[in-house]
Design a protein that fits this description.
Radius of gyration of chain A: 35 Å
Strand content of chain A: 5-15%
Number of strands of chain B: 12
CATH topology of the largest domain in chain A: ABC transporter transmembrane region fold
Structural class of chain B: alpha/beta
Largest interface: A-B, 155 and 158 residues
Shape of chain A: elongated
Oligomer: heterodimer
Order of helices and strands of chain B: HHHHHHHHHHHHEEEHEEEEHHEHEHEEE
Number of domains of chain B: 3
CATH superfamily of the largest domain in chain A: ABC transporter type 1, transmembrane domain
Distance between the termini of chain B: 36 Å
Structural class of chain A: alpha/beta
CATH superfamily of the largest domain in chain B: P-loop containing nucleotide triphosphate hydrolases
Strand order of the largest sheet of chain A: 6-9-10-3-11
Largest sheet of chain B: 6 strands, mixed
Chain lengths: ~550, ~575
């Protein structure tokens, strides 16, 4: 476990590197804030007790008392404390947010080349939770955990030194013992919470999954009267979850309350310990009172500690998850040479094999060739590797063995960008991004002007619809455009046409379409792509029959 | 089912959730209220002890013993408070969660995406519990404690009392500022977080497109820009929040300073105003000790503001959800009614769609407008159209799981009964089936308890399910585990065919079937016409011969596209 903690710490330090100066400044400011608060109360206590003594001694107005220094100090501390607190929050948040911005971008850049690939098994929602939820959890690693702990440690040290200087070893030893008890309490809290926190996460995840499943199947549940059964099954699980959350909250609140009480007891303890010393005059009474009040004021520093330490196991799991994601080995690039293919209208595949790690081969020793003008249909049941074959051809996925040649170049020797320029892939689902329609089309060809975009839309028979809806500036929100299946497929086709690539790969272009819509689209495809090398994946034998060549993939046994 | 949310006020609803843990809340309030008087007593004892010490008098041990006793009492009260607050949070959270689960399974919030529904069940219900255990109690404690501290201060010295009083009313003002600031910050933060989330999800979903178009580097830069904007925006919002809370803290610090200076000057006999002899070192120290305690409850309240914001946001979602879920009776009552369900078959209903209009949310285009159709009893209605045109949604409207904004679904001329109250009236086979934990046979017998094994085998064969791993004894879990996705959907179909329910709603029943199996299923469906009313959503032309009626759905137009000449929905004559 210490090993795991060490790696978590090292990982976090790596992420926060570069903001070191700002973070140091934040800790300094936070420490100044804490010390100022303590000094304010301490100085105030010293001041009134010294004033009381002077007043008694003088018997009348104590004009001889040096009033200026303490009163100025008190006012300066009151204002300084607020100012340093304000800037501490500003600096620490700014530094942390810089780190999180960089971490999010790094994570995104790490995900991009690994999908499809080693991260394919993770859903979009899952990856989003890593990018937003986990990163936010790490935000707290500094703001809510590391910094309060550091500040508390520095404050404790300051108190110990002050006690040693003012009141001698006895008081310092008492404080030290108190702080050690607190450390043990916090450490115990973190250890005792690790297991329930993991369990809570697991139970929540399961409930979440089951709820989504039940809501999707709600018609079944209701139509067959299964609702009471379902609810009866959930009730104990909800109760168990609430019980677990109860235990966690109770432990945290109890630890915090104990630490608060301990701080108060320490301040009183210091005073009681000094009774003798004050009596025989070794320690002045105002100083003893000042020290007591400083300890009392230091209690504020301990307020965030229980939450910080209980959250530590969660931080550790978040780090483990992100680290696993970022250190997943990059798949070897399919094309990593320098040769540039020169379009020759002929795509050749020889002895191509592919298997997901640890699984039976999806396809083995596959050989075929496709000529421009003579499209190939790839058919086979779902799971036979049709889409993966397209990804291999495109170079998004590296085949295990075999060779793919186009334009006189084998894929392995080709320059990655040049190879991808030769191909265009039309996916099963329309993939639109938040932005204007123009942005979305230009993904396929960043340098295209509006005329070129309109030409592609005309070719895809979508120009009229787009014109009616507001042209290329049409804004596409996160929910996508309300296009029918057929129109969406035409938009994808427009992208492919924009790309002008000699090889076109189509993945199930007709899923979810009425036969009449599919036929119309099929005709457009054939007309516009007649001179390209065309490979079309379909599960529909009726569409496959219309293409001159057919390749059948059979599922792995 | 009416979606009219009864106009429940979320704030009222939130406050009302208190009733789920009344006794525990009372105890929590008592222990929490004990803190302020104990703090006052503790400060007084400490001041007494210090005064005796300073004066070099004896009699130190009485105040010291009492002080330690007060400390111990305060610690015990603190621990009890911790215990009760955790208990209140857990009790309220559990009850709210049970109700949310109940409401969701009654079809309330059917328009919520499942992800948001699970957030409502887990996180938002917990926010409500936390609010009652924390902020709501602290608010009452803070107001009472403030009064107590003021009384204590005024009883000794009216000037210190005035210092407290003058800063105290300012605190609620700043609290409000902090509160509205925090609320606004939370709202705007949530908006920009949502934007960031949408942006990422967009890119993650479209990752293949990005890679296929070689956009990795460009996207990495774009993501960093969006990220940076999010950071700047967050900082701008937080800066305001920090500034307002700094003012609050300044008041707390200044009042300590003012009290110390005033008391000090008084003890030096340098000020001539004020109560005079009443203010000694002991009482002066007592007042100084009270100063930080005086602001502590208020500062805790301010720190809890984000809990309140979270609970408010949760109430906005949960209150209408629970209102729509119609809290009629608590769960178990329904169990007895369902046992008789399977035999309650009855004659097939005639079905009428009467000018249905439906949209998922006000800001989304209508999926249907003024959609009408009639189907005689025992007939078959086919829903056709490209994906994304709302076939599955229309099935849910017919089933009574969603309510149209206008129009109605009629069975035999009467409004369709609520599916939540009336099981056994219809059978359903959709894309995401749900099963009970048990075997295939047990799942099938749910709808037909008297069927023997041969009946079950026959209906499985009709649906092309002959190769189950262990036949009728194949084990299943709730999520269909034990079967492949396609097999699960076909088992749901078999269950629907076996059920004696007079209305059958089927979503893409022949998807993934080979032509021979499809033909066999078409025969099976044809055999049920006459005794059942069938509604089938499909792309497959092979089902066309079954139809008495076909409804073609087309894509929703963008706003302002009304001039389109083709009618949005039209009824085609039957194919045969």
């Amino acid at each position: 476990m210490t090993d795991c903690q060490a790696t978590t710490g090292a990982w976090l330090r790596r992420q926060f590197r570069g903001q070191g100066r700002r973070l140091t400044r934040a800790v300094l400011l936070a420490t100044v804030t804490a010390l100022a608060a303590m000094a304010l109360l301490g100085l105030s206590g010293w001041f009134i007790s010294a004033a009381a003594l002077a007043g008694l001694a003088a018997g009348g107005p104590a004009v001889a008392f040096n009033l200026l220094a303490p009163s100025a100090g008190i006012r300066a501390l009151a204002v300084g404390r607020t100012v340093s607190r304000y800037f501490e929050r500003l600096v620490s948040h700014d530094a942390t947010f810089h780190v999180m911005q960089r971490l999010r971008t790094r994570l995104f850049a790490a995900i991009l080349p690994r999908v499809p690939g080693p991260l394919s098994s993770l859903s979009g929602g899952h990856l989003l939770e890593r990018l937003l939820g986990d990163v936010e959890r790490l935000e707290n690693a500094w703001l809510g955990q590391a910094q309060p702990t550091l500040v508390a440690a520095v404050t404790a040290l300051a108190l110990l030194l002050a006690a040693l200087a003012v009141a001698g070893a006895g008081a310092a030893a008492l404080l030290l013992a108190g702080f050690l008890v607190m450390a043990v309490l916090l450490r115990g809290l973190a250890n005792a919470s690790a297991e329930p926190l993991a369990q809570r996460a697991a139970w929540r995840e399961r409930l979440r999954g089951d709820l989504v499943q039940a809501l999707n199947g709600l018609p079944d549940v209701l139509a067959y009267g299964l609702r009471p059964t379902l609810l009866a099954g959930w009730r104990p699980r909800l109760a168990a979850l609430a019980g677990l959350e109860h235990r966690l909250a109770w432990r945290q609140a109890l630890t915090q309350s104990l630490i608060q009480s301990l701080m108060q007891a320490l301040s009183v303890g210091v005073l009681l310990l000094l009774i003798g010393a004050v009596g025989d005059g070794t320690v002045s009474a105002p100083l003893a009172l000042g020290l007591m009040l400083m300890v009392l004021a230091a209690a504020e520093v301990t307020l965030p500690l229980a939450a910080a330490w209980q959250g530590w196991p969660d931080t550790r799991t978040a780090v483990t998850r992100l680290d696993a994601l970022m250190s997943t080995p990059l798949p070897r690039a399919a094309a990593d040479g320098h040769a540039e293919p020169v379009a020759d209208g002929r795509l050749t595949v020889r002895d191509l094999s592919f298997a997901w790690p640890g699984q039976a081969p999806l396809f083995a020793r596959l050989s075929f060739h496709v000529e421009a003008g003579s499209p190939l249909a790839v058919v086979g049941p779902s799971g036979a590797g049709k889409s993966t074959l397209l990804h291999c051809l495109m170079g998004l996925q590296r085949a295990d063995t075999g060779e793919i040649r186009f334009g006189g170049v084998a894929q392995g020797q080709a320059d990655a960008d040049a190879w991808r320029r030769s191909f265009a892939l039309m996916l099963q689902q329309q993939q639109l991004f938040t932005g204007s329609l123009r942005d979305n089309l230009r993904l396929a060809r960043p340098d295209a002007d509006d005329d070129r975009l309109w030409l592609a839309l005309e070719q895809a028979r979508l120009a009229d619809t787009v014109r009616r809806r507001g042209g290329l500036d049409l804004w596409i929100g996160p929910a996508g455009l309300h296009l029918s299946g057929g129109q969406g497929r035409r938009l994808a086709l427009a992208r492919v046409l924009l790309r002008d690539s000699p090889v076109v790969l189509l993945d199930e272009p007709f899923t979810g379409l009425e036969p009449a819509t599919a036929d119309a689209l099929f005709e457009t495809l054939q007309r516009e792509l007649a001179e390209r090398v065309l490979v079309m994946v379909t599960h529909d034998p009726r569409q496959a029959e219309r293409l001159p060549e057919t390749l059948t993939l059979t599922p792995a046994p | 089912m009416s979606i009219d949310p009864h106009q429940i006020d979320p704030a009222t609803w939130l406050a009302d959730q208190r009733r789920h843990a009344p006794r525990m809340l009372r105890r929590l309030l008592l222990t929490a209220l004990a803190d302020a008087p104990l703090a006052i007593v503790q400060a007084a004892l400490l001041a007494w002890l210090a005064a005796n010490l300073l004066a070099g008098r004896g009699g130190l041990w009485t105040p010291a013993t009492l002080l330690l006793l007060a400390l111990a009492l305060r610690a015990v009260a603190g621990a009890a408070r911790a215990r009760y607050s955790a208990g209140v949070a857990a009790d309220i959270t559990r009850t709210v969660r049970e109700r949310v689960a109940d409401a969701l399974l009654r079809g309330a919030g059917a328009a919520l995406p499942p992800g948001e529904a699970s957030t409502a069940l887990l996180e938002q219900a917990q926010a409500v519990g936390r609010y009652h255990a924390g902020f709501a109690v602290q608010r009452r404690v803070a107001s009472l404690a403030t009064v107590l501290f003021l009384v204590a201060a005024f009883s000794v010295d009216w000037i210190v009392g005035l210092i407290f009083l003058c800063t105290a009313p300012l605190i609620p003002v700043f609290m409000m500022l902090v509160g509205t600031g925090a609320q606004r910050a939370a709202d705007r933060q949530l908006d920009s977080l949502r934007f960031l989330g949408g942006y990422f999800l967009d890119r993650l979903r479209g990752v293949l497109t990005l890679r296929a178009f070689a956009r990795e580097e460009a996207e990495r830069r774009a993501v960093d820009t969006v990220n940076g904007e999010y950071r700047r925006h967050t900082m701008k919002v937080l800066r305001i929040a920090f500034l307002t809370s700094a003012v609050l803290e300044l008041f707390a610090a200044l009042s300590v300073a003012l009290v110390a200076l005033y008391v000090g000057l008084h003890l030096l006999k340098l000020v001539a105003f004020g109560p005079g002899p009443a203010l000694t070192f002991g009482t002066g120290l007592w007042l100084l000790l009270l100063a930080p305690e005086f602001y502590q409850p208020l500062r805790q309240l301010a720190a809890g503001y984000h809990d309140r914001a979270a609970a408010r946001a949760a109430a906005e979602v949960l209150a209408p959800l629970l209102a729509a879920g119609g809290q009629t009776g608590d769960g178990p009552v329904a169990t007895a009614a369902t046992a008789a369900m399977a035999t309650d078959a009855g004659p097939p209903p005639a079905l009428t769609l009467d000018a249905l209009s439906f949209r998922f949310a006000d800001d989304q285009p209508a999926l249907f407008e003024q959609l009408s159709a009639t189907l005689p009893a025992g007939g078959c209605l086919l829903l056709r159209g490209d994906s994304g045109t709302g076939k599955s949604t229309l099935l849910r409207l017919i089933a009574g799981l969603l309510a149209p904004q206008q129009g109605a679904v009629l069975h035999d001329g009467r409004p369709a009964p609520l599916l939540t109250e009336h099981t056994g009236r219809l059978a359903w086979a959709g894309q995401h089936p749900w099963f009970v934990h048990g075997t295939v046979a047990e799942n099938l017998r749910l709808v037909a308890p008297e069927a023997d094994d041969a009946d079950l085998e026959a209906v499985l064969a009709e649906c092309g399910l002959t190769a189950l791993p262990a036949g009728l004894a194949t084990p299943l879990d709730e999520n269909g585990g034990g079967l492949s996705g396609g097999q699960g959907r076909r088992l749901a179909l078999a269950r629907a065919l076996l059920s004696p329910a007079p209305l059958l709603l089927l979503d893409e029943p022949t998807a993934e079937l080979d032509p021979a199996s499809e033909a066999r299923l078409v025969d099976a469906l044809a055999a049920r016409k006459g005794t059942r009313t069938l509604v089938i959503a499909t792309h497959s032309p092979a089902l066309a011969p079954l139809a008495d009626h076909s409804l073609w759905l087309s894509a929703a137009p963008a706003p302002g596209e009304k001039e389109e000449t083709t009618p949005r929905h039209w009824e085609a004559p039957a194919h045969d």
